[in-house]
Amino acid sequence: MDLSEKLMLEIEARRADLVELTQDLIRIPTLNPPGENYREICDFLDRRLVRHGFHTDLVRAEGAIGDSDKYPRWNLIARKEGAQPGECVHFNSHIDVVEVGRGWTTDPFGGEVKDGKIYGRGACDMKGGLAASIVAAEAFIAICPDFRGAIEISGTADEESGGFGGVAYLAEKGWFSPERVQHVIIPEPLNKDRICLGHRGVWWAEIETHGEIAHGSMPFLGDCAVRHMGAVMSEMETSLFPALAQKRTDMPVVPEGAKQSTLNINSIHGGEAEQEADYTGLPSPCVPDSCRMVIDRRFLIEEDIDEVQEEIHAVLRRVQESRENFRYDVRELQRVLPTMTEKSAPVVQSVAKAIADVMGKEADYVVSPGTYDQKHIDRIGRLKNCIAYGPGILDLAHKPDEYVGIDDMVESAQVMGRSLLDLLG
Ligand SMILES: [Zn+2]
After folding, report:
1. What is the CA(401)–ligand 1 centre distance, in A?
2. d(CA 161, CA 373)
3. pTM score, two decimals?
């Protein structure tokens, strides 16, 4: 039996451990917001990985967005040195999960096993992936103790809210520099036979239209900012949305609908502030002097961020031509450039080969419609050799009765292990 077959059997033999580890991780509710139990889950991972010979560092993202004494942003980085010099393969998983929401038929933090699936918030996104990478690494170390290079496993905070108290902070502190880490696999739930090369870009902005406050019974004495915003929306419907639908990308984005530029209107607010739900009074009559809209523009690798912004300014200028007293501001809230790792990159090649070996099929290549922590690894860490690969069905993420399939976890752990053998064996 060769080393690869031995490793596949070793991972299969650790199936029960993989299930139990996933359940244990689900049972630590790491809801974000607000960012609960980060220290607890890092301590849990710390104990586990130290037991398997890893050196660990607990890093708090002090001063990062979201970090406070009440909700500290803790991160864990574990490293196991091989017996010979070589490259470092890093598995990065986020430890946070999103709110539970309604509609569950199982306990969201119970980790119940039913029909070969483990249920719970974060089961697929992405505690199942984290567990698979840990078991893959531990099995690889057991079978191939004299490996080259190093293996790192990190559990990081706040991916769901932008990653600033997690991967972004660590990248700024040098944890993801190309001198330290050469290959990165992020076990997000992209399906066990797909390699995710990157993501589209994001431009979030707030548009504000200005008016003039007056008594609501005499609106002609004021200037209604909400009507100005109505004109902006109408111009968007006429010129902007059709133009975005025409912009197609060569990036292999899934699902199909995201293979074009998109824009979502996240919120609109104009006029008097909303009162608390228990307020029983009536509103007062005023002409709104301000209306704010938050837009979420997702753009393609073929588009330039400056053009994306100019397009919005052009919409506003067209409205201005036809309306008296039309005044506006545009404020950028967030920008993330699109990123896509080359198919020829070593980590892509290695994982593709592993998928073919383990599953007997060719890997599919995809790009994510939304961003994830690869953005920080690429932009701050300057590390281009990075992909997302992990078990679980992306569509189940953030839904009620989220689950991860046990067979899928075992198979993707085998792919990760096979890839370690290829890169470090
Ligand atoms: Zn995720």
Report:
1. 16
2. 10
3. 0.91
